[in-house]
C-alpha cells in the first residue's frame, strides 16, 4: 500500500505535493514563485502542518545533498527561509527544529559553498523575533562549528576568507539569538566563551591580509556585535591583562585611520566599552596613550573634512569622505573620551585635563597656529573638538581643592580661549568653568535666568567657603572677574552665553564666595550695568537689554543669599519699577524665544538702575566693606589680553603710550589742516606701508621687552610711569575744586581715606593763569 501511495501522486498528502511543486525540473530555473506562494498560504492556513512541511523539506534536502544536487539544495533553503519569515505561530518551534537540522547538515558538509549557505540561513533566522519560547533548543553544535570555521585553513585564500567570515557571522547570530533568551544556555558560560573568544582574537590579528576580517566584512559598523564580543573578552580575561586588549584596539584604530568613518566609529565605541570595563581593574600606562590616540584621530578626522579625502588631495580613484559620517565619528570619539575619563580617579583625571588643554592651539609664541584660510579653519575645528572633549571630561568632576582642580597653567590657557572672537568657543569655555566650579549639582537650577521673589524654591546646596577656596579666589579672582566682564561686552553673545554667564556668577557666589568675593561680584555686575548704560562698545539693543537683565537676575539672587533686608529692598524696588516702566530690562522679557525689546535705550532714568551708592550704604551698615563697594570695578590691564585677532599686551601698552603722548600739553597746539589733493592721498597710501611696518616692529620690540627683560627692569619701568602719573594727578588735585562736604562732615574716598571739609571758593588760591 505504501508503494502504491508513493507511485500515485494524487494519493500523496497535499503538503507534500505543494512542497514538490516548488522545485522546477531544471534547478537553474530557481524556486517556482507561484507554487511557493501556494505553499506559504497553506502553511499559514494550516499551521499544524508546518512541522510536517519542515520535516519533508529536510528529508528532500538531505537526499539532494547526498546526490550532489546542490541546485535543489539552494532551492530548499530558500523555501525554508521564506517560510520562517512568514510564519510566527505556536507551531513554529517544531518547524525550527527541522530548519536547524538542515542548517547543521549544510555546515557539516565539506563544500565551502554549502557551509556559507547554511550560515547565511542561520543569520536570517537569528534576526527573527519569535513569538513563543523555546524550551528544548540547543545551540552548542553551532557554537562549536562556527568556531571551527573561524579557524579555517583552506588552501585558497579567497575561500578561506569567506569561510572565516561566515564563522564570525554565525557566532554573531548565536550571540544575538541567545543573549536575551533566559530559556537558553548562558552564552557567557566558559564552555562557550572558551570557543568564541579565541576565534575572535584569532581573526583580529594580522595574517596574510592587510586588514582583519572584522574590517573586511563590515562587522564594526553594526557595532552591537563587536561591542558584545569585546565585552565577552574583557570579562573573560584577568583584570591585570585588560590593558593589553585596549592597546590592541588602539593600534587597530591607528592602522585603520583611513578606513570609512563608520568603521572607525565602531572601533571607537568598542574601545569605549572596553576601556570602562578595564578602568575598574588595572589600566596601567595606557591612560594618556589612549587619550593621545583619540585626540590624534580627532585631528585626522578634521583634516579629512577640510580636504574632502583621506589622502589630503582629490585625484582619480581617491576615496571621497562623507562629512556627516566624519561628524558622527568625532562625536563618538568625544563621547568615548568622556565616558572613560569619568571612571578615572581624581588625580588621573586631572592629568588628562591638563593633557587635553595642552593640545588646544592658541595664538602665542609658544603655540604657533597655522595661517591661511585652511589653517584658520583647522585651528578653529581643532579648538572646538578639544574643548568639547574637555567639557566631557570636566562634567561631574569634583575636587575639594580648587587650586588642584584649576591650576594656574591650566586656568591661564583656558581663560585665554574665553576671549576669542568665536562665540562657540567662548561658550564652551564658560561651560567648562561651570563644570569645575559646580561641586554640589546646582548648575541646572540656574539654567533659566529669572528674578525669583523667593530663591528658597531652588533648594540650593550651599556650604561655607573653605580655606583652600579662599586662597584660590585671592589668587585668581581678579583674573576671573576680568574675563567675565570682557565676555559680557561681546557683541556676538546670544541667549546661551548670558545663561552661562549667569550660571557662572551664581555658582561662584555659592561655591567660592566670602564677604570680599561678594563685594567684588556686586562691583563687577554694576560695572556691567554701566557698560549697557554708557554703551561705549556700540552694542546692539538686544545685548544692552540682556546686560541689564543679567544684572537684575544676579543682584536679585545675591541679595537673597546675603539676607540683608535693606539690600533686598533696594533690589526689589528697582525690579518692580522696571516691571512697570521698562520690562525690557528684565530677564522675563529678554531671555525668551521672541524678546520684547525697546527701540531706544538712551536716557535711562536713575530709578531703573541699581545704584552703587545705595548698595554701599546698606551693605556697609551690615559689616561689608563699604569703602571697597564705593570703588567702581575696572578690569586689570596687566593680564594677558585678547588672543586670536585681538590686541596683544604689547599692543595694549603701546596704545596707552600713544594716548598719553597725544594728550600731553606739548601736543595741544593745533596744526593747520592740510589741503587734501590727489598727490596727498597718493603719498598717504605709499607711506602707509612703511609706517605700518615701523609700527609692527615697535610693537614687537615692546612685546619682546616684556617677555624677556628681567623682572626688576619691568618693575622699575612701571614704577617710574606710576610715579609720573601720580605726580600729574597731584598737580591736578591741587588746582581742582574739592568735592562738597558730606552730611557727616567728612567724606570717604577710595579705600577708606577720610578727607576734611572742602575749602570755600572765596578762600581758594587760583594760579596766575586764571587771573584777568
From TrEMBL:
Any one cellular-component term (Gene Ontology): plasma membrane
Any single GO BP term: protein localization to plasma membrane
Highest taxon above the source species: Eukaryota
Record Pfam families: EFR3_ARM
Any coiled-coil regions, as ranges: none
Stretch forming the signal peptide: none
Family indicated by similarity: Belongs to the EFR3 family.
PANTHER family tied to this protein: PROTEIN EFR3 HOMOLOG B, PROTEIN EFR3 HOMOLOG CMP44E
Name this polypeptide is given: EFR3 homolog B
Source organism (scientific name): Bos indicus x Bos taurus
Gene coding for it: EFR3B
